[in-house]
Design brief:
The structure is a homodimer of 179-residue chains. Chain A is mainly α and 179 residues long. The first copy, chain A, is built from seven helices and three strands; from the N terminus they run αβααββαααα. The first copy, chain A, folds into two domains: 80 residues, Arc Repressor Mutant, subunit A (Orthogonal Bundle); 80 residues, no CATH class. The N and C termini of chain A lie far apart (45 Å). The interface between A and B is large, with 72 and 72 residues. Chain A binds a DNA duplex (30 and 30 nucleotides) through helix 3.
Chain lengths: 179, 179
DNA sequence: TAAGTATATGTGTATTGACACATATAGGCA
DNA sequence: TGCCTATATGTGTCAATACACATATACTTA
């Protein structure tokens, strides 16, 4: 899998151009999957060849024309079939944890600084999730189409909270030493 | 980065052959970084060319000879320099969360099954972390060289607990609907 | 006027990673 | 005897990913 599927998921929201998708990947879905624009443009072509999307060129004066992609019935079917396949849990795959395994062979001062920076980064990310939840989901029950997005946010919060707790404990453990 | 650095980290533990490393990547460090054996063998050659490891062939009768790799001073230096570079937080990158974004276009029954399976998988992983902690780190203060490994385990527990909480809430949210 | 930023689409290439295939031997089991 | 598993090292190849480069225009700011 998976970039192709992630794109199909995005296009259930609304028809989008490659540029739109690239921006979308930098925000909402980008919390759970990443892609650069060359990747997206190439993948869109493949999806078109498979008949999962159709493109429509929007003529624009001055700026380059937008090529807007739209899901086909075959694309929706592919998405449905993909959603039935089992998913393996993603592994953590984090540099910082790898470094920790060789704690006696690395620069401990740098390590403390990195954990401090991480703590700040995770707090900021958590604040961003809270902000999104407050502006989008604070008005009673979410609409059924938004439920998944809210659940995604909640996982993000769970994840960031876990890291924040860990960073605080880690710093407490590492502070005592002179270096 | 990073497979090369992960291998250097492993070799701080003890000299290892490619086969040893592949097994090591399936257990301890494998919680935070993954690698297949062809990848490891190729990377070891590159590390040798850079002078970060030296190899020593252990003659064995019958079985193929083991080529055991050992860190050099240059390798230790490279590890130290790597440990000073800032690390970006890893993103979550999880299929399940991507699917959730298109919740109205996927198979909801399959989704519930997948979350149920995930809950079980995360509980099992958590139990494994607890087991490792109990057998390796239950005897008072950990040795300095083991501190990082203990901290890694703790992050793993934080992570699995977050997922477990989320799965339980998610199932509660999804159950009510007939389908 | 020059520089930077946003819009919009691509190519070219290198690195990484996944996975099948290949080889060789010893030991256990049916 | 045949098959599977464990030990041990590789090659060959394709897909996925990252990143630099290329192009074209409009608008804003110094």
């Amino acid at each position: 899998m998976a970039l192709s599927d992630a794109i199909l998921v995005c296009l259930t929201e609304r028809p989008m151009s490659g540029y739109d998708l690239a921006k979308y990947f930098d925000t909402s879905i980008g919390f759970f999957w990443h892609a650069t624009h060359p990747q997206i443009y190439r993948e869109l072509k493949k999806l078109g060849q498979r008949g999962y999307v159709v493109s429509d060129e929007e003529i624009q004066s001055g700026k380059p024309n937008r090529i807007v992609y739209c899901l086909t019935d075959a694309g929706r079917q592919a998405l449905l079939e993909w959603s039935r396949k089992p998913v393996a849990p993603a592994l953590i795959k984090d540099d910082l944890l790898v470094r920790l395994q060789a704690i006696e062979h690395i620069d401990k001062r740098a390590l403390r600084q990195q954990i401090t920076a991480r703590l700040a980064a995770h707090r900021e990310q958590l604040a961003q999730y809270h902000h999104i939840r407050d502006v989008r989901f604070s008005h009673g029950e979410p609409e059924p189409s938004d439920l998944g997005k809210l659940m995604g946010l909640e996982l993000g919060m769970e994840y960031e909270n876990g890291w924040i707790n860990w960073c605080k404990n880690a710093l407490a453990r590492l502070e005592p030493d002179g270096d």
